Amino acid sequence: MFDNMKSNFTRTIAKHIGNVLVFLRPKKAQELSENRITLVHKNKNNLSFQERLMRFALVQKLETLDDHNKIAEQNKTFWINESATELFTETKDSINTFFIPHCTFIFDLLKQEISNQDQEIDTLVEIGTGNGSILNHLSTEFPNFKKLIGIDLSANQIEINKKKYKQNTKLEFVTSDAYDWIKKNGKKNTVFVTYNGVLEYFLEQQLQELLIEINKLKNIFFVSIEPNGASHDFDKDPNTQLYGDEPSFSHNYPKLFKNAGFTLWHFSQIQLEGESKQTFIGAKN
After folding, report:
1. Which of 67, 69, 85, 281 has the most CB atoms within 10 Å of its CB?
2. CA torsion through residues 83, 89, 91, 92, sign
3. Preceding omega of 227 cis (within 30 degrees of 0)
4. In degrees rounded to 5, what are phi and psi of residue 271?
5. Tens of pLDDT, residues 14-37
6. Residue 233's CB: how many other CB atoms inside 10 A?
7. pLDDT band at 144, cuts 50/70/90?
8. Which domains does the chain have, with CATH numbers?
């Protein structure tokens, strides 16, 4: 609500009232701001009006970070720790509110791409599987796949997923760093998927190395649905930029995939609310 206000006057008033509430309710303020990423992505629908004002004021106070290595380290620490589970819980409905209405088109295109080649694709790997809802949904979209593997840094969330989806025997959930797992377990005839904020936490060089490692495998398809900074023009500025209050990395995904040796079969973007847009990449080797 407050993040998208266009009136500077309205934002100033909201920030002032929020600061007063932060002063009057220090315990709630501490709870809201316990972690930077959780604060930025807090599900505002679960907050009272006063709490939303407090959150808005707290976000405005976040220190500006520009050290890429420090940012990547802090972000990885967040996703490993228990606090990530709270965010995964709050975003569990995104499959219905965003994924199905806005993202399924690229998987229809993927089906066409797969049908045009001779070798059978039998495995799907989701990097950054989170609460597992996307992986579970894709198991119904691709019934011929023998195995769908969800990788995530959060050991707590992986254990939750194993229990929640134990009836779906095609699903496998693994706690691991993506690069390490792929280097050891990656195989040909696989679709790799990322959705809504995974690759944006990789340093540019780390992401390039990951894509190069994946490209070493044979008969690979990759579907990447990742946010970018709204003002990031890949033609004018081909390099990675920082964006948002976390902050995250706005990567030039077409460039990085092509540099790794992939061919793009799809590229598009849609504008989101606030300071980001969603980028859709379909790639193969």
Report:
1. 281
2. positive
3. no
4. -80, 135
5. 888 888 988 889 888 887 776 667
6. 11
7. very high
8. 2-62 (no CATH), 88-284 (3.40.50.150)
